[in-house]
Amino acid sequence: MAKPKVATTSLAGCFGCHMSLLDIDERILDLVDKVDFDRSPINDIKEIRGTVDIGLIEGGCANEENVRVLREFRERCRLLISVGDCAINGGVPALRNLVPLGECFEEAYLSGPSVDNPSRRIPDDPEIPRLLDRVRPCHEVVKIDYHLPGCPPSADTLWAALTALLAGKSPELPYELVKYD
Amino acid sequence: MTDGTIPLTVDGRPIEARPGQTILEAAEAAGIYIPRLCWLQGLSPSGSCRVCTVRVNGRPQAACTQPAAPGMVVENDTEELRALRRDLIDMLFVEGNHFCMFCEKSGNCELQALAYRFGITAPKYPFLFPQRELDATHPDLLIDRNRCILCGRCARASRELDGKALFGFTGRGPNRRLAVGAAAGLGATAADAADRAMAACPTGALLAKRVGYAVPVGRRRYDQAPIGSEVARPAGGE
Predict the structure, then answer these.
(1) B183-211 confidence digits (pLDDT tens)
(2) Nearest C-alpha in B relative to A148
(3) Do A107 and A83 touch, CB atoms closer than 8 A?
(4) Which of A19, B23, B37, B40 is most exposed, with minimal Cβ within 10 Å?
(5) Taking the domain B6-77, which CATH number applies?
(6) Helix or strand or coil: residue A54?
(7) What whole-number distance in Å separates Cα of residue A132 and Cα of residue A100?
(8) Would you tell me which residues 89-118 of chain B have a C-beta closer than 8 angstroms to some C-beta of chain A?
(9) CA A9 – CA A56 distance, rounded (Å)
């Protein structure tokens, strides 16, 4: 029987949730026995190649590229999991939701105390993904099947959830593994 | 009924209230936890957060304001009421800006602890990201209205325990805000870090400066056991 496939990505996140996944220590050997990794920063595969059983999303949606990747994951993944506070509520990137987008650009590229930008130009190359009006949690963009809160979710939380999902169960976390920090 | 005590039942469990006790106080004394946010022991109840809503003889009532009466049949820990409380907590999260990941109160916050208790992993309502103001004018204290849930505990504690009445509210509906008794901010009031009002805040909206993150993760108030564990005792236990 083919092994279940797992894909992971970091949208508007800091890769801390991926670091937490690596933090499962020697259990990672069990994990590679149990699953095959499709697209993931861990193996540096850039596009999902087939159909995936479990997709793990770190980070919320801050720009158009985040939305495109999230929709691709939703199309290709049987189960889609929001991992960490940024995916669930926007997290630290969502602090910019309290400031109008124009003011954010102005502060970052024109008027900020450390800005050195003689051209007075705000970057607008078509290669750069355009920012959304505000950072959105993943479940406001696509359907998310399960949420694993934490900043990051602990290695034990990720392990408990993954092993439950691989056993065909929903990841019911014990009290001490549900944390928002 | 003996010695003027008031018999009632909570989720089928017989308890006795003293005259003058509310349902919440009687349940608390009997080792039954009724979730609450705006209620704090030693302050007058306000019945505003509705998290303590129970059914009394079938009718919804705030347990913190409703006096116990003979023969009351109180429902507390039912699926319906748990769902209602979960939704109230959910709304308090999306109506404010609660960034738990860097909040100094995280791990000791009653709002967060209730969300943990109800197993909330993500809110079901959309986030509003409202504009709220900070007040850092006081040398030892900070008001972060992003985290204020308008429970009024600081206002009642200041009035009833500190004798200062430093806090009140302005605005209505979504524009309601915590206000202080000086246009220049908290620093221009008689607020003191030792005031009971400062410790009355259930969230990180009222904080002492320079003391954050003192307790390591894992040893904070709600890291290991849910809020309410300190109240709940099995039936018959004393």
Answers:
(1) 999 999 999 999 999 999 999 999 999 99
(2) B121
(3) no
(4) A19
(5) 3.10.20.740
(6) strand
(7) 11
(8) 97, 99-103, 106-107, 112, 115-117
(9) 7
Cross-chain CB nearest to A181 (options B101, B117, B121): B101
* C-beta of residue B97 within 8 angstroms of C-beta of residue B119: no
Instruction: Specify the domain boundaries for CATH 3.10.20.740 within chain B.
Output: 6-77
User: DSSP string of B65-80?
Assistant: TSBP-TT-EEE-S-HH
Query: Do A89 and B121 count as a contact with CB atoms less than 8 A apart?
Result: no
Tokens of B73: 């049949």
> In this complex, is the C-beta atom of B123 within 8 Å of any C-beta atom belonging to chain A?
yes
Helices (H), chain B: 23-29, 79-95, 110-117, 153-160, 196-200
Contact between chains at A151 and B100 (C-beta distance less than 8 A): yes
Contact by Cβ (8 Å): B206, B193 = no
Query: Which of B:165-224 have CB within 8 Å of A?
Result: 217, 223-224
Chain A: residue nearest B117 by CA?
A175
Angle in degrees, CA A25, A87, A105, rounded to 5: 120
Nearest to A98 among B97, B117, B225 (CB): B97
ipTM associated with this complex: 0.93
Interface test with chain A among B112, B121, B131, B215, by most A beta carbons within 10 Å: B121
Interval B4-30: pLDDT, tens: 899 999 999 999 999 999 999 999 999
Paired residues of B164 in beta bridges:
none
Distances from the Cα of B115 to the Cα of B16, B51, B66, angstroms:
30, 12, 25
Question: Which pLDDT does position B234 carry in this prediction?
Answer: 84
Nearest to B156 by CA among B38, B24, B35, B63: B38
Determine the straight-line distance between the first and last CA of chain A, rounded to whole angstroms.
Answer: 38
Dist. CA A38–CA B72, nearest whole Å: 60
Give CATH for domain B85-208: 3.30.70.20
User: Taking a C-beta distance cutoff of 8 angstroms, is the pair B31, B237 a contact?
Assistant: yes
Domains of chain A: 5-96+133-177 (3.40.50.700)
> Could you give the maximum distance between any two Cα atoms of chain B, in Å?
56
The beta strands (E) that lie in B20-72 are given as: 53-56, 59-62
pLDDT of residue B132: 95
| Interchain proximity A98–B112, CB inside 8 Å | no
